[in-house]
Amino acid sequence: MKFRFYFFFTFFSLLFLFYPGDSDLFRIFAFNRDLFAKKEVVENTDISIPLLINSSFQPTLSAEGVYIVDKNSFTPIFEQNSNKKLYPASTTKIITALVAYDIYDLNNVITINKIPEEGQMMGLVPGERISVEYLLYGTLIHSGNDSAYALAHEYGYDKFIELMNKKAQELQMKDTHFENPVGYDSARQYTTSFDLALAARELLENKYLSKIVSIKEITISDIDFKYFHVLSNINKLLGEISGIGGVKTGYTEEAGENLVSFYKHENNKEYIIVIMKSEDRFQDTINTVSWIDSNIKYVTLN
Hints:
Low-confidence stretches: 5-45
Largest sheet: 5 strands, antiparallel
Number of helices: 11
CATH topology: Beta-lactamase
Strand order of the largest sheet: 3-2-10-9-8
Radius of gyration: 21 Å
Mean pLDDT: 87
Number of strands: 11
CATH class: Alpha Beta
Oligomer: single chain
CATH architecture: 3-Layer(aba) Sandwich
Shape: globular
Order of helices and strands: HHHHEEEHEEHHHHHEEEEEHE
Distance between the termini: 28 Å
């Protein structure tokens, strides 16, 4: 009798875990087998997982690549061409900032030598001496190509690019490669919406960098107080849409409009929203936030 009980218990447990069936709860477990295999998650007696209220109701988006995920469990709630390789444009600077944070002391002073010739600039001047900290501000807030290049050239340009690709590998960004630190289009500069979600998660785990990407506007200076730079965040949703706290914009003609966002719902649930090759990245993100608010609920597994 006891043998029969354990046999049926084991059979239905395996069925429950590995066959999604028509049940939404089945799908949650089947879709998150890796998540539930982690010891620290299994031991947690209060696991909240996002669930679609209406699976046929999808956000209205113009973007070609989309990945929307619950930040804490990294459970996806919507994806579209999430593994398609696209140009990252200035979302590249997420990795640029992560690498710079790894290799520099924030108080290190860099003398500006080279200024790139195209794209968004924070207004650095040759000969200006400025801290790594403020170059990170210029890179993440104002999306300055000059600040990103300064961080790369100080370390050694080629070595810095190697570290960017190493960082991508460490984060399991398997469909990503970089050739420059700013996001200029290149056949060998590509990523996916899924990979950008991984990069965003890493940045948001860094309390210092996550604070920077939430700043709407700030004025900084060089160490001699000779040059002052007004930095305005390219993400116009900051301060306009409640709960949006970063992360990074990107645009080139070939890449289209990219936007990686951190969204915190009023119920304290947190999301990463990646929009790539969009016709209107801000409207797509607004539509996504509205969809999350109306179509996501949570179930607690305990």
